[in-house]
Amino acid sequence: xxxxxxxxxxxxxxxxxxxxxxxxxxxxxxxxxxxxxxxxxxxxxxxxxxxxxxxxxxxxxxxxxxxxxxxxxxxxxxxxxxxxxxxxxxxxxxxxxxxxxxxxxxxxxxxxxxxxxxxxxxxxxxxxxxxxxxxxxxxxxxxxxxxxxxxxxxxxxxxxxxxxxxxxxxxxxxxxxxxxxxxxxxxxxxxxxxxx
Length: 196
Ligand SMILES: Nc1nc2c(ncn2[C@@H]2O[C@H](COP(=O)(O)OP(=O)(O)O)[C@@H](O)[C@H]2O)c(=O)[nH]1
Ligand SMILES: [Mg+2]
Prior knowledge:
binds magnesium ion; 21% strand; 32% helix; alpha/beta; binds guanosine-5'-diphosphate; globular; Rossmann fold; 7-stranded mixed β-sheet
């Protein structure tokens, strides 16, 4: 599959308040995870764009939901969690914003929870996944930065992390790298299958 329709992506707006989010009939694909996990990089890679979604040098600086339209779907960059240097006021804005989005009556296509393949899952990752499971939202796990590990280390980490995260056998799991492109085509194909 090519990058189409993803390469036709357009950034539309940033929202700092869940009540301002626009209604949309199209399936929504959202991306959530720790600050610096590689969310922006993954979205750019899926779109086949260099820097449409800003890859920040100052992680966790903004607490907004960023909205992207592609033909037939909406892509949503959710604010990252767990960055120690984030101000208290930014941290307090995260939960109402992200939970505000998840608790609306929306057309959820898939929520991608990104987890760095190199590290143990954090308590916040575990909480995120159990929240999504409890709310019966469709979610998948995307391991990032796979280029940093050998293929055999990747396999070990995937099985260890799936246990830590409480991922059941029917959770979709992707192993990706925005640096060398590993797994990106699988994510695109999966999104396309959810859109069909
Ligand atoms: N080696 C490697 N670095 C990555 C990868 N994805 C992201 N990064 C780097 O990780 C940092 C944070 O990436 P970013 O996409 O801004 O993360 P976000 O805060 O989750 O949006 C940046 O320095 C990226 O270049 C990857 O797949 N491999
Ligand atoms: Mg980002």
